[in-house]
Amino acid sequence: MNLTMRHFPAKEALIESGASRLSSKIVQFKAQNARNSKAIVKVCNAEMGDFTPRDAVSRYSQSFPKQNGMVLVLVLWMIIILTVLAASFTLSSRTENLQSRLEFETTRARYAAEAGLNRAVYELRNPDPQNRWVADGRPYRMDLDGIEVEIRITDESGKININNANVELLKGLFASVGMNEEDAAALMDAMGDWIDGDDATRPLGAEDDDYEAAGYPYGAKDAPFDTVQELQQVMGMTYDIYRQIEPAITVYSRNAGINLATAPLEALRAMPDISEEDARAFIEQRQQAEYGEPLPVLPNGMSAVARGGGLAYSVRSKATLPNGHVAELDATIRLGGTLQGKPFQVMRWRDNEHL
Ligand SMILES: [Ca+2]
Questions:
Q1: How far is the CA of 191 from the centre of ligand 1 (A)?
Q2: How many CB atoms lie within 10 A of CB 39?
């Protein structure tokens, strides 16, 4: 019985032995668990260095200190500055574009007007008198690649020659622009002194001494006018008067009177007993008269004999682009070939004088 009991331990002993082994396993498991935890930490440290969540918070605070919206203000200022720069570049580019466009349009209009002058010369030399353009100031029009060109030609023989015009015509000319008789008489005497070769002053005129006394840096020319602009240098002539009579005067006519077949309004109304209405009505009838038909008669009984025959002409050519851009030239020319092979000679040239 005892032997059997030795070979087969008691129940309590078995329980004690099992508990002991279990306790030992638990201790081993805890130890293993602790080693595993340390190993994981070592692996993490190896991959991330010593960086910990606390470090992350610390580094964020260092990188982005308390800025109170400064970044936003800086960004806004930069946006404003860049916007202003971009706007100024755009404006500058737009202005340059407009300038080049304007220059291009001006050049186009200018050369179209010049084409009008060449057309006028061609038409004045037309051998067919029925189709030849009439140099009495009537408008002729042509279309040049969409540009409308209006051409008016005036034979200089229809204008008042300031070198040899008769006194009545000059008086009427100055009166037609509102000049009183006394001023007109003084101006006519001064014109006479300007042209004549002597130094004897006319009653109301002006010779060298008078110009000097009045402070002019020059004296009387003592020679005929070479250009109509020269008239502005004569004592007593004002720019306002000159501008008004300028369409009526010339230095290229050989007559003391005017050719009624081509005379402009400003010259016709200078004639004695001819009002502005008379002159306008006469011009209208003159333009309606066909080639070969008799020309109209003025209220004073005077009438034109024949058209044409002139050598010097004033041509006014005005070009209008489809966009409304306008260029005009006003040239006085003499027909006849030049040494350079041109069919006419330019004696006076003005651009955009009347615009
Ligand atoms: Ca003189």
A1: 9
A2: 10
Ligand 1 center–CA 255 separation, angstroms: 22
Neighbouring CB atoms inside 10 A of 240's CB total: 10
Res 187: pLDDT: 96
pTM: 0.71
Of the candidates 264, 272, 266, which has an alpha carbon nearest to the alpha carbon of residue 314?
A: 264
**End-to-end CA separation in angstroms for the chain:** 151
Taking the CA of residue 14 as centre, how many other CA atoms within 13 Å lie in the half-sphere pointing to its CB? 7
CA 85 to chain centroid: 27
pLDDT > 60? residue 149: yes
Q: What's the 165 CA to ligand 1 centre distance in angstroms?
A: 17
d(CA 73, CA 348): 67
Question: Where do the H-state alpha helices sit in 11-69?
Answer: 11-48, 53-63
Q: How far is the centre of ligand 1, averaged over its atoms, from the C-alpha of 177 (Å)?
A: 26
Residue 203's Cβ-side half-sphere holds a number of Cα atoms within 13 Å equal to 4
CB-count burial class (<10 Å; 0-12, 13-18, 19+) for 25: exposed
What average pLDDT does this structure show over 228-257? 94
| Ligand 1 mean position, distance from CA 201 (Å) | 7
Identify residue 312 by its one-letter amino acid code.
A
The domains of the chain are located at 1-44, 112-159+258-355
Mean pLDDT of 23-31: 73
